[in-house]
Structure formats: C-alpha cells, structure tokens
Design brief:
By secondary structure, the chain is of the alpha+beta class. The protein has one domain (about 5-115). The chain has 2 helices and 4 strands. It has helices at about 5-30, 40-70; strands at about 70-75, 80-95, 95-105, 110-115. Strands 1-2-3-4 form a 4-stranded antiparallel beta sheet. It starts with a helix and ends in a 9-residue tail after the last strand.
Amino acid sequence: MDDRQASLKEKLSRLLMEAAEVEVALSRAEGAIVGVPHYSVIESRAHELGKELSRKVQQRHMGEVTATTARRARCPCCSAVCEVHEQKRSLTSIDGRVQVQELKGHCPFCRRDFFPPAGSDGA
C-alpha cells in the first residue's frame, strides 16, 4: 500500500469515528436514545447512518462516472453520433432513494432517447 492509500484509509477511519460520535450525540439530543437504550435501538440508528453513507458514496461514484464519460455517443439504433447531456435521476437502491447524475442522449434521426454505457469513450 502506498502513502496515498494509507493516508486515505487513515482519513476514512478518522471521519467514520467522528460520524459515530456525532450520531450518538445527535441521537441523545433528539431524544431517540434516552438513558440505557435497548441494543436494537443502537443498531437501528447505526444502520440508518450506514445507509445514508452508502447513498452519498453512490451519488459520488455516479457523479465521477458522468464527469469522465465522453459527451458524444453513438445511437444504439442507427449509430449516428449524438450529443449527450447530464441529467439527474432518482433511483431506489437497497439503501433507499438516491439522486444520481447520468448521461442521456437524444438521436434526432431516430427521435429516441438513450443512455450511453458507463465509461464510454464516445463515438
């Protein structure tokens, strides 16, 4: 593992610990946890935080995929080269609703919309 990877793993560990501390404090401040809670309550709050983190990671990954994909793609029907544009779309992941960026093309010849494959290098 190189220095950058080690640094990133250390930062992630630090941020996760901070998120856990904030979640515990927030749970108490909101009154979701009072006194000595049943373990299922602690576990449920932890899972909600994990699902929220998952949705953020999904959004970030999709944003990076969209940002690095070519802005032109071939129509899957007629192979015409078409412009593609970013758009937001709501998905339902296993961790809940996620707003993601994706690329959408429109072929003026076929008059159909299409979604170029991720990582496409264009025409």
